[in-house]
Q: What sequence folds into this?
């Protein structure tokens, strides 16, 4: 049932987007996010992304060949949430993603608050063509506790 | 105006004779530029062709005096880390073989040998009288065990005229922070990375089994060099350093995103033995034209660095990633290019959110072995469009440079694997 709801909202969203394309002046639909993620939360995530992530992962989330991994079409972003939260908590280096090697070091982002981590991960999971459930502060707290 | 009836006849005769001359001078093997110059924008009189599409990450490239092309691949393709290409009609070439199971960047032909590097080792292969490798499966391993910690891992190579081999060992760090690239993390005192990386090492080109212990740290304080070449006029090694990244990300209170996009310059250095270019303690500000103390070591964007460090010989736009350097010694191109430097700029990523830049080959004029006058973009539009430059989503990224026996300039591309050849066709 939940899946059906998500599908339905996706359909609504995509038709909304199409509508918005025809009439750019139209209000609400263009910004309406998926899976119950509020526009305010996404805006917050976007600002955190611009400040902390964009210079490596780029404005389109596509990363940099051989250096900085893309945030699109990857299980790292769309899959297991504790693992994804762990990337912010611990940093990441030398992973192979979809058969491609990425060499740059990603530093831990522990200067971010738990709320900021949740917001930016939710933004990433719902941007650049990604559609996945939000990351909550509770999940960040749990991942951090598990790490300790 | 009265038309002279003999005129068309004269014109026809002139045309016929020029065609005759053309057919006499152009042999079937003559190099013909592609109608669209391979998509490149070039100065008047130059043309370009796609020599071959390798479909692999073509890093550096070497052309033997007989014209055989060797391309080093970043990752082995079908088990081959080096491709051999031979010329066909019109100046194009086709892949005729491959060998060396290792990925890497460096490849250089000199005398009777072809040298190539993995990210840890340097090998050499024997070339025969036809300029072809005779022992593809049994190269000599002349250097081994160079540091590869995944960051700035490529080992570019070049030889001088005295039997020495120069190898770049890049620093496995952006700016020698306690925690690499972490916001606010300060520099490690007396940066220990410099002991085994962040410089150019010198080895003998003809000696098997060398390591750090038998090599010499020729120059230090160089973050990462990918493009390097020997200048025969000044008898000196020149290198292009990739400048540090992320001034804004790491020190947002000191640098805004615009400053971070324009700082620091990518620098050309003229090296002598013992030279120290000052990484990680400084960066070069191309606007102030000064060496600035790095924020990791107490800098604030204004404080000057210790003057003892080497000044760059020339400076180029920040983050544009110079991956290939070649001193042009051919005679095909007009006189102004002779002994000057071509530099392949792979293109930036660290200018975001500002538009990206690069993806071109630059010409830097030289006189008496020193940079002389402003550089200019020589070959542009590897990216495919201005939008693709700005977004960094380039179709092609120029990486390696080589000079063909006729004076053609070869350019390799490690994005799509295209091998370009630039020729001068105006006499």
A:
């Amino acid at each position: 049932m939940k899946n059906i709801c998500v599908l339905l909202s996706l359909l609504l969203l995509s038709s909304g987007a199409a509508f918005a394309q025809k009439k750019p002046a139209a209000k609400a639909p263009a910004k309406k996010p998926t899976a119950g993620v509020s526009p305010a939360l996404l805006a917050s995530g976007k600002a955190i992304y611009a400040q902390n992530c964009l210079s490596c992962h780029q404005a389109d989330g596509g990363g940099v060949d051989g250096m900085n991994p893309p945030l699109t079409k990857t299980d790292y972003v769309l899959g297991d949430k504790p693992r994804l939260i762990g990337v912010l908590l611990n940093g990441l280096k030398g992973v192979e993603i979809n058969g491609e090697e990425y060499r740059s070091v990603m530093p831990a982002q522990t200067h971010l608050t738990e709320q900021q981590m949740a917001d930016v991960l939710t933004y990433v999971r719902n941007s650049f063509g990604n559609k996945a459930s939000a990351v909550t502060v509770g999940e960040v707290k749990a991942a951090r506790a598990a790490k300790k | 105006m009265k038309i002279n009836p003999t005129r068309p006849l004269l014109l026809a005769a002139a045309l016929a004779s020029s065609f005759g001359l053309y057919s006499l001078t152009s042999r079937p093997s003559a190099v013909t530029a592609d109608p669209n110059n391979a998509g490149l924008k070039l100065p008047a009189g130059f043309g370009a062709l796609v020599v071959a599409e390798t479909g692999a990450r073509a890093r550096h490239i070497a052309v033997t005096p007989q014209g055989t092309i060797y391309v080093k691949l970043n990752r082995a393709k079908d088990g081959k880390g080096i491709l051999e290409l031979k010329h066909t009609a019109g100046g194009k070439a086709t892949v005729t073989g491959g060998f060396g199971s290792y990925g890497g960047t460096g490849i250089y032909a000199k005398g009777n040998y072809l040298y190539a590097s993995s990210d840890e080792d340097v090998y050499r292969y024997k070339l025969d009288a036809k300029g072809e490798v005779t022992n593809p499966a049994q190269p000599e391993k002349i250097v081994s065990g160079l540091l590869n910690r995944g960051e700035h891992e490529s080992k570019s190579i070049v030889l001088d005229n005295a039997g020495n081999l120069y190898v770049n060992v890049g620093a496995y760090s952006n700016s020698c922070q306690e925690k690499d690239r972490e916001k606010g993390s300060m520099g490690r005192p007396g940066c220990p990375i410099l002991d085994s990386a962040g410089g150019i090492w010198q080895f003998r080109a003809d000696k098997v089994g060398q390591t750090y212990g038998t090599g010499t740290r020729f120059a230090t304080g160089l973050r990462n060099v990918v493009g390097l070449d020997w200048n025969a006029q000044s008898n000196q090694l020149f290198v292009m350093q990739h400048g540090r990244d992320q001034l804004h990300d790491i020190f947002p209170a000191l640098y805004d995103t615009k400053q971070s996009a324009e700082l620091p310059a990518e620098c050309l250095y003229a090296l002598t033995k013992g030279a120290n270019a000052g990484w990680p303690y400084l960066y070069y500000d191309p606007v102030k034209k000064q060496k600035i103390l790095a924020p990791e070591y107490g800098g604030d964007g204004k404080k000057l660095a210790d003057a003892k460090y080497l000044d760059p010989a020339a400076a180029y736009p920040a983050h544009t990633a110079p991956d290939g350097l070649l001193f042009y010694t051919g005679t095909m191109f007009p006189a102004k290019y002779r002994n000057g430097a071509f530099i392949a700029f792979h293109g930036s990523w660290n200018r975001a959110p500002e538009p990206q830049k690069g993806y071109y080959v630059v010409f830097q004029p030289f006189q008496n072995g020193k940079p002389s006058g402003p550089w200019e973009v020589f070959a542009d539009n590897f990216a495919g469009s201005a939008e693709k430059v700005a977004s960094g989503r380039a179709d092609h990224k120029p990486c390696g440079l080589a000079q063909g026996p006729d004076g053609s300039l070869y350019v390799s591309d490690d994005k799509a694997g295209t091998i370009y050849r630039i020729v001068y066709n105006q006499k």
In short: The two ends of chain A are 37 Å apart (CA to CA). Chain A has one domain: 39-147.
